[in-house]
Fold:
Amino acid sequence: MHNNILSIIAAVALSAMSPHALAGPFSYDYIQLVYGEQEDEFDTEVDVIALQASFQGNRRTGMILNLGYTEHDLSKIAGISASFLDIDAKQKSYSFAAGGELASTNRTCITGKFGVAFSKVESNQDALDGIKGEQLALLIDSRTWLTDLIELELGINYSYVDVEGDSESGPGITAGFAFHLTHTLRAGIGWSKSMVVKDNDVEGIAISLRYMF
Structure:
């Protein structure tokens, strides 16, 4: 499933060995592009692309704001290509989160945020087209300098999701590494698992490129 993404890791890791960036205060002012793949326990797969922005501004207040736009493009259903089945479905979502730093040291920073997201499906199938969803989430994330150039990122979250009146809730976890290429540019690789839907966990892997300002 993830071969095309995993093939990039070695090149990114080698690039991060260039001595451009040094460990220091974590930046939460950035724009980030993400590409990934997600798969559930029934072999349904989606391609994911997201544009994310984060703003902290004054570090003395500790307030962090996140904005995001994400597209989930259906690629496989029960392991069969969606295009072969003549099914076109794309979920578009907009998200907003606010929070701040909970604790920080020279090497680690822990943040907490509350987020909301709104989504809608566009599809050539009447049964799917127009489906709307809402999500509420509580997120706790940590960033730790492993070296002067490499970060370890860990996260836990709990989400409530409502889709056309049907609701479920559950936890999720994330883990990843970030490789600083310059003082303003970093690349990342991440893994996630969502356990919101009963008896159907969703796992994903993604790569990212972040510009910090």
In short: Residues 11 and 65 are 31 Å apart (CA to CA).
